């Protein structure tokens, strides 16, 4: 049975530091008697929620290879497709490293794009490109993908 890839980072330290910082800031703001302290406290809580929300979204990255079938999840929804449906792969930069937009041929004749957030997953690049080489050799790779594949082959991570 296939297993999804693990996250490449630990989410607990950012949540811990953000929470401790928010509590310290809230304590300092609410102990004072300055006017507008409730607005500042609301701003601190909003910033904390945004930080924790961003970390939570990053933990939703998912990639599962099960033979010729690939399943990805970016935020909430799972998307599965076979290798023969993959048409193009486009690389785009993220703060964590390059991720890939997979253009897939749909049944009625159209195309749909899905994101593979491999920069957030342990061995994500080598798993994705190994699957592409084995089950979707017809897919068109852009320049960034071709360069990444060549680097993975030189390192011996992809045959």
Could you characterize what this model shows?
With 159 residues, the protein is α+β, with helices and mostly antiparallel strands. It folds into two domains: 12-59; 62-154, PH-domain like (Roll). It has four helices and seven strands. It has helices at residues 12-31, 37-59, 124-135, 143-154, and strands at 62-66, 69-73, 78-82, 86-92, 99-105, 111-116, 140-141. It has a four-stranded mixed beta sheet with strand order 6-5-4-7. A three-stranded antiparallel beta sheet has the order 1-2-3, with helices on one face. The longest helix is centred in the N-terminal third of the chain and has 23 residues, at 37-59. The chain is elongated. The model has no long low-confidence stretch (mean pLDDT 88).
Beta-strand content bin: 15-25%
Please list the strands of the largest sheet in the order they lie side by side: 6-5-4-7
Number of strands: 7
Q: Classify the helix fraction into a percent range.
A: 40-55%
Shape: elongated
List keywords for this structure.
7 strands; 42% helix; alpha+beta
Task: Give a brief description.
The chain has 159 residues and is of the alpha+beta class.
Helix and strand layout, with pairings?
Blueprint: H1 12-31, H2 37-59, E1 62-66, E2 69-73, E3 78-82, E4 86-92, E5 99-105, E6 111-116, H3 124-135, E7 140-141, H4 143-154
Parallel strand pairs: 4-7
Antiparallel strand pairs: 1-2, 2-3, 4-5, 5-6
Helix pairs in contact: 1-2
